[in-house]
Automatic annotation (TrEMBL):
<protein>
    <submittedName>
        <fullName>Bifunctional diguanylate cyclase/phosphodiesterase</fullName>
    </submittedName>
</protein>
<feature type="domain" description="EAL">
    <location>
        <begin position="23"/>
        <end position="276"/>
    </location>
</feature>
Amino acid sequence: AKIHNRSRYTYFTRDLGVEIRERVRMMHALRAAFEKDRLFIVYQPQVNMRTGNTVGAEALLRWKTEEGDFVPPDQFIPIAEYSGLIVNIGEWVLRTACFEWATLSKHTDTNFKIAVNVSQAQFSHPLFLRSVERALADSGIPADCLELEITESMAMNDPDALIESIAKLKAIGVRVSIDDFGTGFSSLSHLQKLRVDKLKIDRSFVNQMIRVNNDASIARMIIELSQSLKIDIIAEGVETQAQAELLISFGCDYAQGFHYSKPQTKNDLIIWLTNS
Ligand code: C2E
Ligand code: CA
Ligand code: CA
Ligand code: CA
C-alpha cells in the first residue's frame, strides 16, 4: 500500500508541475501575442427580438497564435487575470472598442452601444476610472454608449468598494451591466444598492428553458426581478426561435446569441449591419 501511495503522490506532483509549466508558457505566449498585436476584437450583435434592430454589440477578445490556432478566451483570460496582464490588455480592449464605435455607429440608426467586459483586477485598479475617462475623451464615444460588463461574483469580494466604483462610473455617464446574472450570489438588497443599468441573463438559464429540462422558472424570475427594479434586461446565448419567443412572452425583448449572430470582425459586422 505504501508503494502504491508513493507512486500516486509522484504522479500527482509531476502532473501539477506540467500544469504550472503550461500556465507559465501560456502567460509568456500571451504577453508576446499582445505585444505583437496578435490579439483582436470580435463583436457580437445585441438585438431587439421584436423589431430585429441591432442596438449594440459586445466586444469579445480573440487570440490567434502564430501557428494559426485560436486560444479560447475561457483559457487565456484566467491566465491574463492571474498574471496581471489583464490590466493592460483590458485597457487596450476598452480603448479599441471605444474608437471602433464611431465606425460601427455610422451603420445603425439607433444610439448604438458597445459593451466591454471588465475583470476584477481591472475594475478595482485605482486608475480604472481615469482610463475610462481618457478612452471616452480620446475616442469621442458618448459616455452612455459605453457599457461596462462586470460579473456578479465581483460583487462578493468588497461590496462597498464596488458600490462606490459603480457610482463614480455612473457619474461620468457610463452604463454598467451585470454579466452571467443568476450564477453568482448577490442578494436582492445588494443588487438594488449597486444601481446597475442592466442584467444579462446567463446563457445556462436560457438553454435550460427549452433544451435542458424545460425549466423556464429562473429566466422568468430574473426578468420579473429586472422589471420590478426597473433595470434593463438582455438574454445571452439565445440559439433558437423558440427561446426567443418564450423570452419575449416573459417581457425580455433583447438578446445576444447564435440565433441572431455569432461574434464577427468589425468589417463583417459592418456588412451585416448594412444588410439587416
Ligand atoms: P461572456 O462575457 O459571458 O461572453 C459571452 C460568451 O458566450 C462568448 O464567448 C460568446 O461567443 C458566447 N456566446 C454568444 N452567443 C452564444 C450562443 O448562442 N450559444 C453559445 N453556446 N455561446 C454563445 P467567448 O467569446 O468565448 O468568451 C468567453 C468569455 O471570455 C466571456 O464570456 C468573457 O467572460 C471572457 N472575455 C471575452 N473577452 C473578454 C475581454 O475583453 N475582457 C475580459 N475581462 N473578459 C473577456
Ligand atoms: Ca460579457
Ligand atoms: Ca455572459
Ligand atoms: Ca461567462
